[in-house]
Amino acid sequence: MYGEDVSYQKTMGDIDIVYHDGVYHLFHLVLPNHDFIAHAVSEDALNWERVENALFIGHPGSWDDHMLWTMHVTPDPWNPGMWRMFYTGLSRKDHANIQRIGIAQSRDLIHWEKMSDNWFQEHRDGCESMQPMISAPYDPDGPCPIEAAGPHYESSLKEGRHWVSFRDPFFYTDEKRNLLLMAARIPDGPVIRRGCVGLYEEVAENQFVPRPALHVPGLYDDVEVPNLFQLNDRYYLVGSIREDAKIRYWHSRSPDGPWSNYFDNVLLAKGNYAGRISFDDKGPLVWSFYTQNDVRTVSNLMPPPKRLSVNGDGRLRVRSFEGYDELVKSTVELNGLLPVSYLVPSTECESTANREEERLSLSTVGGFQGFLFSQRVECFRFSGRMKLDGLGKCGILFRTDAETFSGYHLSLDLLKGVAQLRAWGERPGGSTEHAFRFESLQSAFWKSDGRPEWEFSLLNVRHYIEFSINGNVLLSLSDKTYRRGQLGCYVESACLRLEDLLLEHLDSPPDPFDQLSTS
Known about the structure:
eight-stranded antiparallel sheet; 2% helix; mainly beta
């Protein structure tokens, strides 16, 4: 997990990832001040080093002198070897109520210079040594800032929410057209349903012309951090929705739309936000920042990436990142998990192991029973196949204390296709109704199809938790409640059959705050 959380006063925000010459470059906001765009690098997408900050807010009087918001870094199609950063800026002059988009350039992804702007500003002299990163040179014909324009979009404070939404740029090129997407709002319809994916076309170098919105869902106040990309014969449009704090996507046969929904178009579960799609030498990856806080300005972290693929009907699948394979330090199969102990004293339960066929059956006639394996876990990956006989319940227990039953409780409804993760256990010092902790951390759904057997994988690295069914990541979150304990499964009034169990103990990546670069 990468984070910018050295104190409660500062955390990371929206992100963008570029892969170049074997290195992942992370650019991200720093909240709540939004004073600069930070930069970190990694060779494996798991261990990160902070390097020089990329951009800062402009000098007083600049169009971006108040805050910097979401950015997108992309190769410059007009100048091979160069990079462009499209970024959102807010000015003090209009009390940060109008969002605009600027451009910065770089030859090496490290040193950035803002492109000339046409924003009149007094007192431009001084601070010449910092000028490239702070304030752009003035040019009455300069390309920046790019602003919302009617009639396609809300463009004045007299419209809609009296706050011009025009942010989160994303640049897309298909060698025929250069398109700039952004979070914008159409000027008509219910005020809280005007959010759209805005579209400007680059008709000449750094000259952008407004076009009608690329997609108007008709549901949301804003569609934040849009992404456009192609996989196989389909185009995909990804956006983050504030209303339920989820990342959603739409699909089309053309980059011009129309954009359609699948029955489930949630790409990542609640808490993951500001999703960005990037490509490395193995294909597409989806990134986000994660927060448990509804206001998203405290203790944000960036989980490891997930690999994107497409299934037979065109739906996107999110798969666990293959880089975890490099963290495996030891493996344990079924024999190493035995003997199984019972969490609750009972005579109405049974565990039966077939060591030769690598099968384990856990059953209860009555109520709940937790079956704990002999292994204690801290950083691990646990996988196998499961089948439930009967109409009862089942799930996985991990980092569990056998005496207090404190730990993580992953509830699985294999019939309906529901996964729910809870931190559940004894609350130290609690009394009466406050004696226990019961916190719902994250939920997700999958299409059950009535199949009898499911492949599963549970990953826990430091405080990152990830759960997959049939290779598709359902849960992705961070929680620090429990650090270590036993691993097991639970059953209620049913029989859980497990096969091909594999427990992999993983090395823990170093703390991100020990990975700071000074140059």
